[in-house]
Amino acid sequence: MSDSAGAALARLGLLDHGPECDPSAMAIESALDEASSGRPLTREAALALMRASGSHLLRLLCLASALRDTGKGRTITFSKKVFIPLTRLCRDRCGYCTFRRDPGETGDGFMTAEEVLSIASAGARLGCKEALFSLGEKPELAFPEARRFLTERGHRTTIEYLARMCELTLEETGLLPHANPGTMTIDEMAMLRDANASMGLMLESVSARLMRPGGPHYPAPDKHPLPRLETIEGAGRLRIAFTTGILIGIGETLQERIDSLFAIKALSSAYGHVQEVIVQNFRAKPTIPMRGFPEPTLLDMLRTLAVARLILGAEMNLQAPPNLTPTVYSMLLLSGINDWGGISPLTEDFINPEAPWPQIAALQEETASLGYRLRERLAIYPEYIFHREGFIPPPLAPRIMSLVDDAGYPREEGQHEARAAFHSGSR
User: Can you tell me the distance from the alpha carbon of 258 to that of 239, in angstroms, rounded to the nearest whole number?
Assistant: First the structure.
């Protein structure tokens, strides 16, 4: 691994500055020794490693990649999905967001049941297994138009409507919903649980400082870290397989970035429910308030991914969205990830519409070039199907078990028969 990583780093010019030029070389060397020992990484060591360069960077990547191999073997995963933006109305106004809409703008309002089922059905015909529901947070608290739409359909809140759309998608198409509606109470998550194979909420950052005037989260009440941490903890109490992660490059310090990863680790250790952690890099776009903000560099991503792997351990599923860092898939793999996230053959990435999904064949080729096997997964990871009890909602168990092989991955043969059996049994 070190030869291929070293060659790749050299091609990208990331070995030009060796540790002899780094005034923190001794601290980085000590942190690398700590990581090599197998002891849990301390915050101080993690912060030092966020400044690794040259040969230290190469060693950091080798440690992260080896740890990933210990826990995950030679398998790299992805989920074949459709992206359903149920509503783009949102009461938050984050400085980096192109997803949200105000009433009257193109793309405002809610998707109807017919529109949801049209996308989900088309995805099912293409072999998708996951329906990712993403939506703005609590629009009914900000917009009369949202309240009116919900009331006309017999719902008080967006979460109630989302629950119905998840149920309908499962019933009519067999796709497994994964809801990502923002902060939620325990009661709201319980309402969604029986029709969702998993759920998600990006922590983004534990920094409340980012909510000050001028910060990316200033006009975004739902981005305060406390309710986001409470949502993640609530999912643990309900034994929901959960996806979370951090958004880097939005103005957080390296210490705040490290603290965010340790906060996720603490919740995962307490409840065992965090199935996946995403490290997502900020992308500047011409229409956002932060359009002039510098994007994280490739070096930022490599260091953060590798340190995340060392903090979170060998068993965690670690993801970097490939469409946000194209052309360097091999470097992301060498940083310790084991998952490419959801990829759609049908729908765009509505959060980052300028960044097309990679071709699965291209990912497969890059993955194989480093000696790894690309495998499809469901919205719920294999270990939460077979090795961790209580994470499959009972109503979903027949559907999930009809899709997977003995290892918990989607069957590579007989998929049509499994889907047909599901539909005939659900009528």
Answer: 26
- Closest among 69, 130, 163 to 347, alpha carbons compared: 130
> pLDDT by residue (tens digit) across 337-351?
999 999 999 999 888
Q: Where are the domains of the chain?
A: 2-72, 75-403
Q: Which CATH architecture has domain 75-403?
A: Alpha-Beta Barrel (3.20)
At 2, is the pLDDT very low, low, confident or very high (cuts 50, 70, 90)?
A: low
Regarding pTM above 0.90, the answer is yes
Structure token pair of residue 204: 């983004």
Q: Among residues 220, 190, 193, which one has the least CA distance to residue 205?
A: 220
Q: How many helices (H) and strands (E) does the chain have?
A: 16, 9
**In whole angstroms, how far apart are CA 47 and each of 32, 308, 310?**
11, 11, 12
CB of 64 closer than 8 Å to CB of 305:
yes
Residue 42 exposed, middle or buried by CB count within 10 Å (0-12, 13-18, 19+): middle
**In whole angstroms, what is the distance from residue 380 CA to residue 320 CA?**
17
DSSP string, 220-238: -GGG-HHHHHHHHHHHHHT
Partnered with residue 75 across adjacent β-strands are: 373
What angle (nearest 5°) sits at the alpha carbon of residue 111, between those of residues 106 and 115?
110
Beta bridge partners of 376: 78
- Report the alpha-carbon distance of residue 105 to residue 210 in Å, rounded: 27
DSSP state of 79: E
Within the chain, what is the greatest distance between any pair of CA atoms? 69
84 alpha-carbon distance from chain centroid: 16
- How far is 162 from 133, CA to CA, in rounded Å? 8
Q: Are 98 and 285 in contact (CB under 8 A)?
A: yes
Are 179 and 161 spatial neighbours (Cβ–Cβ below 8 Å)? Answer: no
Nearest to 408 by CA among 372, 379, 365: 379
